[in-house]
Each structure stands twice: as C-alpha cells, then as structure tokens.
Amino acid sequence: MEPAPEDLDVQAYCRSLALQQIQMLTRLAEIAMQLAEAEGARAIAAQVRAAAPKADEAAVQDARAEAQEAGMAFSRFSRSVHRSLALRSRAADSLCARDKAQAADRAAARQDRRDRHRNEVEGVLRHMIWDEIGDFSRGARAVAAQARAVQPKADEAAVQDARAEAQEAGMAFSRFSRSVHRSLALRGRAADSLCARDKAQAADRAAARQDRRDRHRNEVEGVLRHMIWDEIGDFSRVEALHAELEERVEDLYDDETLRVEDRPLGSVMAGLACGLGLTEEWGRWSPAWPGTPDPARPAGDAAKVAVERARRRDAAVAAVERSFADLPDPARIPGIRAGLAARVREADVIAWLDTETTQTVARRLCRSLGIDSYNCFEKPAIADTG
C-alpha cells in the first residue's frame, strides 16, 4: 500500500468516507426497493388469481405457491431496504454530529499524519469494493430478470426461466448486500476510530510542532548572531544588525501557517543573511549548515551500509578535529581524540550518521566532548554532502 501523504487531512478524509457510505447505502436501498416492489406486485397478482371464482384447484394451488414465494422474496428485500436505510440514517447522524463538533477547529486540522491510519482505512475499503462490485451487478441482473418475467408476450417457459433467474440473482443480491453492510459498518467504525485518535493526538502534535519550531528559531537566530559578532568588526553595526535580525526572525516565525521549522536550517539562515546584506559573510559559514534536506539512510546490503557509515563517520570526525588547532590547551587533544573514537561507536551517534548531515553530527559531538562547536565549522576541504 502507498503511504499516507504527510499533509493528509484525516477529518476531511473521514467526512468523504461518510458521504461515500451514504451514497452506497442509498444505491443498495434503491436496488432492494425495486426488487421488493416487483415481488410485492407479483405476490398481489398471484393472490388475485388464487381468489378468482372460476379458477380450478390446480390453478389456485399454483397461484398460492407463487404468492407465498413472492411474499417471502418481498420480505427478504424489504429487510435489505430497512437495513440499508437504518445504516444510512446512522451514517448521516454521525456525519452531522462530526461536522457540528468540528466546526470550530476544522480550519486548524492540518497536522502531521501517520501511515497506519491510511493503511487501516484502505484495507477496509478494498474489502468493501471487492464485495460491492459483485453486489450491484447481481442486483441489476435480478431487476432485469424480473422485467423479462412480466413481459406480456413471453411464453411460459421463458417466464419460468426468468423467474428462476430472478430468484437466484435476488438471493445473491441479499447475500452480497449483507456483506456490503458489514463492510460499511466496519469502515464506519474504523473511520470513527481514526477521527477520534486524530483529534486526541492533535494537542500533542501541536505541542511537538511548537517545540520543534522554537528549537529551529533559537538555532537560526543564535547562529546568525554569532556570525555577525565574529564577522563584523564595527560594534555599533553589530548592535544594529542584531536588532534587525531579531525583528526579521520575529516576522518570519510569527506566522503559524508558514511551516518554517520544516525547512533546512541552512536555507532559512541563508535567506535571512542575504536580507541583512551578509551574503559574503554567510558564504564562509554556510558549509556547516547545508541548505539541503537530511541525507537518506544508507541503502544496499550490509557491506555497502557499513562502507557508507564509515565514510560518514570519518567525515564527522574530521569536522570535529578541525577544532583541535584552536584549543587553548593542546595537551587535551589526545584525551579528546580518544573520547571521540569511543563516542562515534555509540548507538545514538550511529543513528545520527544514518539520518543527519555531517555537520549536524559534528556539532552534537562537539557539545558532548565539551568543545566549542563553532570551531568545528571552518570551511572543509570538500563539500558536506551528508
């Protein structure tokens, strides 16, 4: 199955499922109603023949048998109509209640979605579609057979064949309509569970997004302030740039509908630096914060994954070691190098190497080793490709 898109609106998706369910139940009720009407008319006509004063005993018995058969078919199709209408009524009530409950927060329903939601709903839908296609075709065949059976010029053999086909197709319709009812009921419960779970998780997602947004903002502003302080020699200009930076960051992150936190840090900082007239200065800092998304996980067999992880580990170690020349006490270097060698073999660092850029890993390693992380980010000899 295809994964759910990240911007899937679960509430809108569930609403479309409810509308589709109402349409399908309406169609089932219409087909069952046509069958019930035809069988009811046949039962009445047979009863009239059975009550005719001049009918012989054999004709009366045949008419009564036909009336009984048609009456049972009428009852069966009537129950199908009742079930379809009852399910449709519940689906409509649920839809109206959901719309009313979600009226206030429907505009804010755009949140992160999870693949298992779509997989659960799609699995039920596939089962329903498999049953539904056969269901409608059999209902149409039963209606057509009933129409042939009541043609005025049809001979007795053709009428009997048509009635037999109508009965067979009608039984099949009833059987498959029950399957559709069950499938729609399962889908309705799955959709209700999906919407309830999505609504319950909305607050947690909003809080997680705000935390991520705050971290993103703090890092962007902190790095650019540090860059301005290091690159600009005029103290008065530094203060002016810091004030302008604060204003621009405030404007950028103030709009909650703009998902700045989903963009790479390097891309956001590059845009702000250009707006501040610091393009050249940012060019000396940009290798540390690439403007591209995080690298993909290493792919291939175990040997290829090991080689790629080793390459990324060596690149991160080289980035950290570039800071050694600026350490105030060179005697610390052997101890830090030993600590670095042990650190890069720990599970969390291996996980970083699989998903983060080289400079992100280097920055985290610097912090864990007590090194000024900004010393790690002098322009490397080769571009950082993750």
Per DSSP, what share of the residues sits in E-state strands of 2 or more residues?
under 5%
Major sheet attributes: none
The first-to-last residue Cα distance is: 30 Å
As a percent range, the share of helical residues equals over 70%
Describe the protein in words:
- The chain has 386 residues and is an all-alpha fold.
- Among the domains are: 10-114; 298-385, no CATH class.
- 74% of the residues lie in helices and 0% in strands.
- It is built from eleven helices and no strands.
- α8 (302-321) packs across α11 (358-368).
- The protein is elongated.
- It starts with 9 loop residues before the first helix and ends in an 18-residue tail after the last helix.
- Residues 377-386 have low confidence and may be disordered.
SSE layout and pairing:
Blueprint: H1 10-50, H2 57-102, H3 115-149, H4 156-231, H5 235-254, H6 265-275, H7 279-283, H8 302-321, H9 333-343, H10 347-355, H11 358-368
